[in-house]
Amino acid sequence: MLWKFSHRAQSLKSSTIREILKVTEQANVISFAGGLPSPDAFPLTEIRAAANAVLESNDIYGALQYGPSEGYKPLRLWIANYLSQRDNVTVSVDEILIVTGSQQALDLIGKTLLDSNDKVLVETPTFIGALQSFNQYNPQYVAVASDEDGLIPDSIDDEVARTAKFLYSIPNFQNPTGRRLSLSRRQALAAKAKQNNLVLIEDDPYGDLDYQGQRLPALYTLAPENTVYLGSFSKILAPGLRLGYIVANRQFISKLLPLKQASDLHTPSLTQYIAYQIVSKNNFLSDHIPKIRQIYGSRCQFMLQSLAKYMPQEVSWNQPEGGMFIWVELPEYINATELLKEAISQKVAFAPGETFYVHSEKNNCLRLAFVTVPEEKIDTGIKILADIIKHHIH
Amino acid sequence: MLWKFSHRAQSLKSSTIREILKVTEQANVISFAGGLPSPDAFPLTEIRAAANAVLESNDIYGALQYGPSEGYKPLRLWIANYLSQRDNVTVSVDEILIVTGSQQALDLIGKTLLDSNDKVLVETPTFIGALQSFNQYNPQYVAVASDEDGLIPDSIDDEVARTAKFLYSIPNFQNPTGRRLSLSRRQALAAKAKQNNLVLIEDDPYGDLDYQGQRLPALYTLAPENTVYLGSFSKILAPGLRLGYIVANRQFISKLLPLKQASDLHTPSLTQYIAYQIVSKNNFLSDHIPKIRQIYGSRCQFMLQSLAKYMPQEVSWNQPEGGMFIWVELPEYINATELLKEAISQKVAFAPGETFYVHSEKNNCLRLAFVTVPEEKIDTGIKILADIIKHHIH
């Protein structure tokens, strides 16, 4: 059989880094490579109770039947209300579409906005999962310069902003860097978007995970007309539910809806009913989110201490204020992908930086995920990594 | 804000029929329009027990965490074993990819195989949901002539077969016609595919629902190299789980996988764990499927009797041997979409035929779904429909 694949499928490259990281699935590897949330933060009791409540009531028929492509209406109403309160804005239920995880939101954004060779602005570095979704629609990436405070709006050329299909950003505790976009940068980006009719895709899976609970204004509140906001239950409930949502104005939602329908008809009813049952309980999230912040914040502190204890002075890293990742910068002459091979031979893994750049210009950085590794293993793993790096310092 | 949508999104037309059918969601409408499976056939007890078993055991961590894009391995192994036994073939776990309902399989097939203007062969009439998925990739449809025995392989031009990207078919109890492709046509289609390097997409959501339990050989057993088989749990467990699977050779699966990953990362872990827990119980499906056949078969018989009792002799319909649909043919001068408006004003609904044709050549047919309507309402609804039709007979 000679298969006749689409150009899209033919152009897919298998990831060498994914191959390297496959070995890290062994139990005896200390892995800082993955992006999994901590199972210690899953609300097991509430999930069990919610599943019971759905399956033992008349809700069971709705939870098992086909449902609307927009999503389960009570869940959409709850989200509208949650966002309206949290972000002090007015979000209506018609502006919300439930998706099968934020990854599906990224695919639907690509479907709705991208033709071949369209320009897309991305942070430097940026989230690899977003690139994988957008790549299906063959865009041209324009990398936006970034520093400790996130992307730099002034570095965006106005002509590029006017002609790009959208700018993709994770303003809060970005994947891979853990950086948060500063307030003044948010304001500058919102102004730039308004001036240039630029669509902002605001991906916010980690937004609730600021360790101090001090949320900065979301882009969709600063430039509501221009922004498509992506929310997720993966980091505040559990990723295995695959539940996320898109917030956008009605005109955009009306274009998304038939594409969502063509993509998977609708997100599973059962997981939507269970999630609604959990989050609609009095104060559930206002009790639960501080627990996640506590777990994640203390592991972050612990890893920062280990880094300070073991790393040579030529290595630097940031101090995240939330989320799941620390971004480490090595001297320019050290290649992080080569380092990974050595680290794996000593049973430690991380995500090498080059994966996260659209133009692969830089490979002396690495991403460390700290939330799923117990403290004693964080200490051991960072020491091993530091010893390997020291061997390469000259 | 001036949105810059993709050509894909711009070319979407809103469906007038969907608008007409929106009113049928009212409780007092007798609707033969939808394609919902009957909630009477949901295995409620087993679903409750399975959810409990998953959530009360250590499985809960897997069910709530990110999982592999291929799907939950025990479920894939179970499917490989089920198909191997049912269809007397050898299916390996590497040939199976779990998807978020068969609708996602159709989207992934489009992504993997279709470039703009590629030829796709479809039955006449064909499943509208498949067209919605494929339309996203802008194919050219070639309608294959069909009759009571399903599509007619001899009518397919060899040159068209050689140059088409694939042929899409529902061989068992097709949506919308309820027709089953005969054995000799299956053999002829398999031969045609092999001769012409033609990919067959075999969509089989209703395959287990033959009322007599006499399965005909699947295309993927007759032309294994050429066929991509789509299975679904929607009609044998419950559609709200959104669980389906793709069976294809490893080369094809390896092209699908990164596109699946880019589309929603993976199908929800929770629903996969629950489904596995149900189907892996001793003989569950061999006990449960006959119950569904019994419910669906007796409702089909009942509707056939009502049609015979009330319809004028100018109207004809088929005698389905399985599935959820009867296909009714009116005299050519009666337009089914116009008829629908009248029917709705009298609180009865059906799906008008024109929706299911790629070239809209025919609109004197209609699809009747019988499985969700109680018997007394089937009788009332068919009588009302027959009276309306009689008014148009001349």
Provide the fold topology:
The structure is a homodimer of 394-residue chains.
Chain A: H1 7-10, H2 16-22, E1 30-31, H3 44-55, H4 59-64, H5 73-87, E2 96-99, H6 102-113, E3 119-123, H7 128-135, E4 140-144, E5 146-147, E6 150-151, H8 158-163, E7 166-169, H9 183-196, E8 200-203, H10 219-222, E9 227-232, E10 244-247, H11 250-264, H12 269-279, H13 284-310, E11 316-317, E12 325-329, H14 336-345, E13 348-349, E14 351-352, E15 365-369, H15 375-392
Parallel strand pairs in A: 1-13, 3-4, 3-7, 7-8, 8-9
Antiparallel strand pairs in A: 2-10, 5-6, 9-10, 11-12, 12-15, 14-15
In a nutshell, what does this entry contain?
With 394 residues, chain A is an alpha/beta fold. Helices cover 43% and strands 14% of the residues of chain A.
Search tags:
homodimer, 394 residues, alpha/beta, Aspartate Aminotransferase, domain 1, Aspartate Aminotransferase, domain 2, seven-stranded mixed sheet, four-stranded antiparallel sheet
What does it look like?
Two copies of one chain form a homodimer. By secondary structure, chain A is α/β, with parallel strands linked by helices. Chain A has two domains: 13-35 and 286-392, Aspartate Aminotransferase, domain 1, CATH 3.90.1150.10; 66-283, Type I PLP-dependent aspartate aminotransferase-like (Major domain) (Aspartate Aminotransferase, domain 2, 3-Layer(aba) Sandwich), CATH 3.40.640.10. Chain A is 43% helix and 14% strand. Chain A is built from 15 helices and 15 strands. The first copy, chain A, has helices at residues 7-10, 16-22, 44-55, 59-64, 73-87, 102-113, 128-135, 158-163, 183-196, 219-222, 250-264, 269-279, 284-310, 336-345, 375-392, and strands at 30-31, 96-99, 119-123, 140-144, 146-147, 150-151, 166-169, 200-203, 227-232, 244-247, 316-317, 325-329, 348-349, 351-352, 365-369. Chain A has a seven-stranded mixed sheet with strand order 2-10-9-8-7-3-4, with helices on both faces. In chain A, helix 10 (219-222) links the parallel strand 8 and strand 9 (227-232). In chain A, helix 13 packs parallel to helix 15 (375-392). The radius of gyration of chain A is 21 Å and the shape is globular. The mean pLDDT of chain A is 95. At the A-B interface, helix 1, helix 3, helix 4, helix 6 and helix 7 of A face helix 1, helix 3, helix 4, helix 6 and helix 7 of B.
